[in-house]
Design a protein that fits this description.
- Keywords: Kinase, Membrane, Transferase, Transmembrane, Transmembrane helix.
- One of its GO terms (molecular function) is kinase activity.
- The chain crosses the membrane at residues 93-114.
- This is Diacylglycerol kinase (ATP).
- With 126 residues, this protein is mainly α.
- The chain has one domain (4-120): Helix Hairpins (Orthogonal Bundle), CATH 1.10.287.
- Helix content is 85%, strand content 0%.
- The chain has helices at 4-24, 26-44, 49-79, 85-120.
- It is flat.
- The termini are far apart.
Length: 126
């Protein structure tokens, strides 16, 4: 049997984690700002449902990766507060994963938003 109180409590904890991510983590704030600009551009360009699905999936993936990266970094700092080469490697790889997703999101966003912009404003042919 599903315990509704436990489910609601776990959602509350997860929600607090999301709030803390965007409140305290600078990189998450940057991702939030860029996502807002991309959503505004998508509204202005009148994206289709499929285009929205692509854009929102990319935004969600970057945010999720940033949350995981932050959790890994906080765990590393807790377990090994001093400098340690293995901890550095773990943190570098974790932030590298966010960078990979962010680059992929930029490429996807450029294809979707740029493609849509080109259909609205075709370049003059000489």
């Amino acid at each position: 049997m599903i315990n509704g109180r436990k489910v609601l409590r776990s959602f509350r904890f997860a929600g607090q984690g999301i709030i803390d991510l965007f409140r305290y983590e600078n990189n998450a704030k940057v991702h939030l700002l860029i996502a807002g600009l991309v959503v505004a551009a998508g509204c202005w360009l009148d994206l289709s449902r499929v285009e929205w699905a692509i854009i929102l999936t990319q935004i969600g993936l970057v945010w999720a990766a940033e949350a995981l990266n932050t959790a890994i970094e906080k765990l590393c700092d807790f377990v090994s507060p001093g400098l340690h080469p293995q901890i550095k490697a773990i943190k570098d790889m974790s932030s590298g994963a966010v960078l990979i997703l962010a680059i992929t999101a930029v490429i996807s966003g450029t294809l979707v938003l740029g493609g849509k912009a080109l259909t609205l404003w075709p370049l003059p042919v000489k």
